[in-house]
Amino acid sequence: RMVQIKHILGDLRVDQAYSRRARSISLNEPLSTAMQATLNSFQSSFPICEDGNLVGMLPYSTLLKALEEKDLSTPIRDVMQTGIRPVSPRDTLIDVQKRMNREGVDALPVVDDNQGFLGMITSHDLNEAYRLNLALGKTRPKPTSRQVSPVIQSG
């Protein structure tokens, strides 16, 4: 099975599958903002940004723990995780999938070369890319410079 996954995801890159409309939250926002954002969307983990740059993450498990132990007015900066290594749009999906499995996470932030937040790549995005490309069939010839490869976006 891993060989099939590697074959399907091997040449696909993060920029072909990540969620560009992922919401980020400011580090000065209260926990209540993250709770409302979770309830009002499909997103459960949030990148924490300041001036458009990634400064931390608020995974769902961390949000739940903070809601149990802290007040709703507690600033996100007091509970967010730092040191989360983001991914680049140029990273391969197979490398991201391996990393998610190794680190036990289901979402990673995507940033540009200057740490500017671009979006999120989630395990759902990876599964969607795998299923869609499997349905397309990997027996098709690789695109040449004149052809455009299919871009898979999730929202």
Strand percentage, roughly? Answer: 15-25%
The largest beta-sheet arranges its strands as 1-2-3
Helicity range: 25-40%
Order of helices and strands: HEHEEHHEEH
Gap between N and C termini, in Å? 27 Å
Structure description:
This protein is of the alpha+beta class. It has helices at residues 2-9, 31-39, 60-69, 93-103, 123-136; strands at 25-26, 46-50, 53-58, 107-111, 117-122. The strands form two sheets. The chain has a three-stranded mixed beta sheet with strand order 1-2-3. Strands 4-5 form a two-stranded antiparallel sheet. β2 (46-50) and β3 form a beta hairpin. The relative contact order is 0.23. Mean pLDDT is 84; it is low at 144-155.
Topology overview:
Layout: H1 2-9, E1 25-26, H2 31-39, E2 46-50, E3 53-58, H3 60-69, H4 93-103, E4 107-111, E5 117-122, H5 123-136
Parallel strand pairs: 1-2
Antiparallel strand pairs: 2-3, 4-5
Q: What key phrases describe this protein's structure?
A:
alpha+beta; three-stranded mixed beta sheet; two-stranded antiparallel sheet; 34% helix; disordered C terminus
In short:
With 155 residues, this protein is of the alpha+beta class. Helices cover 34% and strands 15% of the residues. It has five helices and five strands, in the order H-E-H-E-E-H-H-E-E-H.
